[in-house]
Amino acid sequence: MNLLEELIAYNKDFVSKKKYKEYTTTKYPNKRMVILTCMDTRLVELLPKALNVKNGDVKIIKNAGALITHPFGSIMRSLLVGVYELQADEIFVIGHHDCGMSGLKADSMIEKMKQRGVKEEILETLAYSGIEFKEWLKGFENVNESVAHSVDVIKNHPLLPQDIPVHGLVIDPTTGKLDLVMNGYEQL
Ligand SMILES: [Zn+2]
C-alpha cells in the first residue's frame, strides 16, 4: 500500500466508525484567537497540547517559519479573515527554536533546485521578471527578532483594527516551553 492508499483506507474506517464525533465543533474559535506558527513536524500535536487548545478553540495558520513575507499576501489575509469573519479577537505569533527557516540560505536551496532538474534558464527568467528570488527564499537569523518583526507587520497593518492585541512568543519544540517576546496588551 502506498501512502495515499493507506490514508484513504484509514479514512474510510475513521468515518464509518464515526470517530469524528469527539471533534464536532463550529468554525468559530471558542477562545477567540488565531495563531500563526510554523509547519514544523514537532509542533503538530505538541503546540496545541502545550497551549491547551483543542479542536474548535482556535484558528491556526501555518507556514515555514511563521513568517509574513508580504503585508498583502495570503498569511496576512488569513489573519484578517480570522479577525473580521471568524470572531478572533487576539493574534498570537509563535515561532520556535531550531526552526528550519533559521539560517536558511537561498543559495543552497537554489543549488538543490538545480540538482532536482530546475533549469538555469528558469532561474534567470524569474530574476529578469523582477522576482526577488533570493530575498523570497531567505530565512531568518534570530527567531526572537523574526517573531518581533512579524508582530510589527501585523500590528501596523492598515487593515487591522487597533483594538486587537498581537502577541509574540517562541516555543521549544521539545518541551513545549513558551517564552514571551511581545505582550500584545502592552501595545494597545
Ligand atoms: Zn520552523
Automatic annotation (TrEMBL):
CDD domains: beta_CA_cladeD. It catalyses: hydrogencarbonate + H(+) = CO2 + H2O. Keywords: Metal-binding, Zinc. Zn(2+) binds at C38, D40, H96, C99. It holds the Pfam family Pro_CA. It comes from the Bacteria. Its EC number is 4.2.1.1. Its cofactor is Zn(2+). Binds 1 zinc ion per subunit. GO terms for molecular function: carbonate dehydratase activity; zinc ion binding. It is an enzyme of class 4 (lyase). PANTHER family: CARBON DISULFIDE HYDROLASE (PTHR43175:SF3), CARBONIC ANHYDRASE (PTHR43175). Belongs to the beta-class carbonic anhydrase family. This is carbonic anhydrase. It comes from Bacillus aquiflavi.
